[in-house]
Amino acid sequence: MLDLFTIFSKGGIVLWCFQSTSQIFTPSVNALIRSVILQERTGNNSFDHNALTLKYKLDNEFELVFVVAYQKILQLSYVDKFLNDIHLEFRDKYKNDLQNGRHFQVR
Prior knowledge:
Elements: E1 4-9, E2 14-19, H1 26-37, E3 46-49, E4 52-59, E5 64-71, H2 79-99
Antiparallel strand pairs: 1-2, 1-5, 3-4, 4-5
Protein name: Signal recognition particle receptor alpha subunit N-terminal domain-containing protein
Domain Signal recognition particle receptor alpha subunit N-terminal: 28-99
InterPro entries: Longin-like_dom_sf, Sig_recog_particle_rcpt_asu_N
């Protein structure tokens, strides 16, 4: 079960977020940003923090980050495919808005 799924820009704008528990994920996502994204250590698409595993996918063209968080003890084999599929769908659906820098437009 996924605990968190979020899409945000590298500039820090949260474009979409789903949280299935009341757990606070801010420290884990901030640790991912500090330890991986800002230091450009993106060779691996997985990051462990406390009891969570965070898998992420970067979109360098539009400077987006897709993150899934789940309990470290779980072995979820579908997460990589989920991230790839969501990444492609999101890009296809919002490509024009992303190219024009319209992150805040309400639909």
